[in-house]
Amino acid sequence: MRYILLSMVFLLIGASSSDAQDKVFRAGAFAQDITPTKFPISVNGGMADRQAIKAHDRLHARCLVLDDGKSKLALVVCDSCMIPREVTDEAKLLAQKATGISPERILISATHTHTAPTVAGVFQSDPDEAYKKFIAQKIAVGITQAHKQLTPAKLGWGAGKDETQVFNRRWHVKAGSLLLKDPFDKGTDKVRMNPGYKHGDLEKPAGPIDPVVSFLSVKSVKGEPIAFFANYSLHYVGGVPALSADYFAMFAERMATLLNADKVEPAFVGAMSNGTSGDINNINFGAAGPGKKQEGEQARLVAESVAKAAFDAHKSISYHDWVELKSAQKEIELSVRLPNASEVKRAQAILATAKKPVLSTQPEIYARETVLMAKYPPRVKVILQAHRIGDLGIVTVPCETFVEIGLEIKAKSLLKQTFAVSLANGYNGYLPTPEHHALGGYETWRARSSYVEVDASRAVIAAWQELLAKVK
Predict the structure, then answer these.
(1) Region 241-254: what's the mean pLDDT?
(2) How far apart are CA 107 and CA 63, in angstroms?
(3) How confident is the model at residue 5 (pLDDT cuts 50, 70, 90)?
(4) Hey, which end of the chain has fewer CB within 10 Å, N or C?
(5) Is 291 helix (H, G, I), strand (E, B) or coil?
(6) What was the pLDDT predicted at 10?
(7) Average pLDDT of the segment spanning 93-113
């Protein structure tokens, strides 16, 4: 009897060891070109439309597919300002047909470069419908190609810190200052976005920053880099002509050099996703202006600085042969801050006397937004996701999310490391906190770029916590 029991123990131990050895983690990455093929094309990111006649550098959908043997996860970062849900939904369905990866396990985000083709209509820029169809198809092709390149891999994660490249762009201003003028003539704002360097009416920044550079690093079992997926809470940099992928692509290129991945096959893919940067930029308005710089110089400086912080932190991380992937998704409904009848009437009166076709003043531009917002539904559906990669958590939101919200979920997360990807799986405008709504300022002004309910951030945080608990 003792012999039989011992034999059974050895058999169980052997089976358990075999199961562990059978676990193979795989990864594949591919950067799909999404540069438009027809010009001129609309470029958004400003109060007036711009037309690009050529590309300064190529735009990409940077795709990473992970497979733990039981489930798969696709992470995509697109060189685009913002991508509406109908486009990301279409791309996910096309990718699902080709790879079998369910839409709930596909994350598609925009970097928020302000020098990319218009995909979502904001202010006076309207999307090219052909490009919307084009980018959806190309994203799916990129995911499919990354899936085809799945190979045994190891992965690790960590975080660096770079406090030198992020500043809160909202400033408290002295009461009565002309800086507080708003396009609705309400006179209730207490803060100003991008107020100008060392203006005499400035008091202090209206919020914190998040200097953390989070990242996921993936390499083959032979040690060759496959992908580097990063996250930093910086709106964008600018200073490069349309069309351009801005500092986000420069960061990816710099990481390839630092990781000695310039010539690996299949090609290494670097990606910088946008964190919670709704109130963060690269400009220190509390100091004197930096003076004129060469085209793209500032973006390159930022990319170099942030890449160095990520690379230095990368040196000390541990790689894992296998980790579990878990995902959860929830669709929540948020109220829309619709204009009332008197606000619409005022807007129509302003537009009736405006010089057209290009509106030049803020009251005119926001009057047009008010008329368009009057056609919105009273509630909108918003997709939120949480993904766990080992001990790393990634949450998503389809908004330009304020930094305070990202800091809060990092503090409340059940996982050791968590970061948020903004502008993901759709576009629903700015997401300030209720406290920032009370302060007013550009990011709270009702428009297609800012329209969800005042308490929306609280609903998002609650849903994120629920989703993280599910994947934990």
Answers:
(1) 95
(2) 10
(3) very low
(4) N
(5) coil
(6) 37
(7) 98
Q: Cα(221)–Cα(243) distance, rounded to whole angstroms?
A: 37
Q: How remote is the C-alpha of 388 from its chain's centroid?
A: 17
Amino acid letter, 249: A
Which ranges of 149-177 does DSSP label H, i.e. alpha helix?
Answer: none
Rounded to the nearest 5°, which phi and psi values hold at 36? -60, 150
Instruction: Report the candidate in 227, 255, 258, 233 with the shortest Cα–Cα distance to residue 166.
Output: 233
Length of the chain: 472
Residue 76's DSSP bridge partners are 63, 108
Nearest to 145 by CA among 84, 74, 77: 74
> In the beta sheet, which residues pair with residue 155?
218, 320
For position 6, what pLDDT does the model report?
Answer: 39
CB atoms inside a 10 Å sphere around CB 362? 15
What is the DSSP-derived secondary structure letter of residue 30?
Answer: E
Please tell me the distance from the alpha carbon of residue 67 to that of residue 82, in angstroms, as a whole number.
28
Name the residue with tokens 């500032």. Answer: 298
E strands present in 68-147: 72-78, 106-110
- Identify the CA nearest to 284 among candidates 165, 179, 178: 165
Region of 417 on the Ramachandran plot (φ > 0 left; ψ -120 to 50 alpha; else beta):
beta
What is the distance between the alpha carbons of residues 391 and 394, in angstroms, rounded to a whole number? 10
Give 272-295 pLDDT, tens digit per residue: 999 999 999 999 999 988 878 888
Tens digit of pLDDT for each residue in 113-169? 999 999 999 999 999 999 999 999 999 999 999 999 999 999 999 999 999 999 999
Instruction: Count the neighbouring beta carbons within 10 Å of the beta carbon of residue 110.
Output: 30
* Element of type H or E holding 467: helix 456-471
Q: Report the alpha-carbon distance of residue 423 to residue 371 in Å, rounded.
A: 25
**Do 276 and 399 form a contact (C-beta atoms < 8 A)?**
no
Using one digit for the tens of pLDDT, what is the confidence trace for 400-418? 999 999 999 999 999 999 9
Do 140 and 98 meet the contact criterion of CB atoms below 8 Å apart? yes
pTM: 0.94
* pLDDT value, residue 450: 98
Condensed to tens digits (0 to 9), the pLDDT of residues 38-74 reads: 999 999 889 999 999 999 999 999 999 999 999 999 9
Asked whether residue 440 carries a pLDDT value surpassing 90, the answer given is yes
**Structural contact between residues 199 and 34, judged by C-beta atoms closer than 8 angstroms:** no
Asked if residue 143 lies in contact with residue 99, where contact means CB atoms within 8 angstroms, the answer is: yes
66, 325 contact by CB (below 8 A)? yes
- Single-letter residue type at 345: K
